[in-house]
Design a protein that fits this description.
Elements: E1 4-7, E2 11-18, E3 21-29, H1 33-46, E4 52-59, E5 65-69, H2 79-88, E6 94-101, H3 108-127, E7 129-142, H4 147-156, E8 163-166, E9 170-176, H5 181-191, E10 197-209
Antiparallel strand pairs: 1-7, 2-3, 3-6, 4-5, 4-6, 7-9, 7-10, 8-9
Length: 211
């Protein structure tokens, strides 16, 4: 599978009230259309008393599958704005359902577009995004006395620590772009005066925060 951006949690819920109508976003990762359909069906069952359960989803390395539904809202005012938000965030393999409980005040076409798009956009922002990238797994082994210094260096140089374990030494797992590995080793060897052991692992997918 290709590199791509998706939501940080496997599933996320966010809601807001707009002119007495309640809008609830449920968004989740998916790997197939069956996943998407099952998620939509589940949310619809949970909110069977809602006025509308609008959905949109993208699936495939190149978003080969794109589906949406206005679920009774005026054509083009709900599902399409949601889909466009997913596209603008460069998201892949996600399904979003916005549930609306009508509060008695009509929003008009423009208001509906803003409500569905805005609920999706704010929910995606609240969930947070991760990039699923191919990286080389590098394990750094150092003495305890150097752990804080190394962690600070990694953080300030935008390297994400995936895992930390402790025994007679400290072991940090860091994903590094393959082309950067030699330079990464050279810089840290110099920075730590040679008091570091590198274990270069296989290339695999890591989820790295986009913040």
């Amino acid at each position: 599978m290709a590199n791509y951006i998706t939501i940080a949690p496997a599933q996320f819920v966010w809601e807001q009230d707009i002119k007495k109508s309640r809008f609830i976003l449920n968004i989740a990762r998916i790997t197939s259309e069956d996943d998407a359909r099952a998620f939509i069906e589940n949310i619809t069952k949970q909110h069977y008393k809602a006025t509308h359960n609008v959905f949109a989803y993208l699936l495939g390395d190149n978003d080969q599958i794109q589906r949406y539904s206005d679920n009774g809202e005026p054509s083009g005012t709900a599902g399409v704005p949601m889909l466009e938000v997913l596209q603008k965030n460069n998201l892949h393999d996600v399904v979003a359902v916005v549930t609306r409980y009508f509060g008695g005040i009509k929003l008009g076409a423009g208001g509906l577009i803003r409500a569905y798009a805005g609920t999706t956009a704010e929910g995606v922002k609240a969930a947070g995004l991760v990039a699923r990238l191919t990286r080389t797994k590098v394990t750094l082994t150092i003495d305890y006395k150097q752990a804080d210094m190394l962690q600070h260096w990694l953080t300030t140089h935008d390297y994400q620590i995936i895992a930390t374990t402790y025994d007679t030494a400290v072991h940090l797992v860091v994903p590094v772009a393959e082309v950067e590995v030699p330079e990464f080793q050279a810089i840290l060897t110099d920075f730590l005066a040679g008091h570091v052991v590198f274990q270069i692992g296989e290339k695999t997918f890591f989820e790295i925060s986009t913040k």
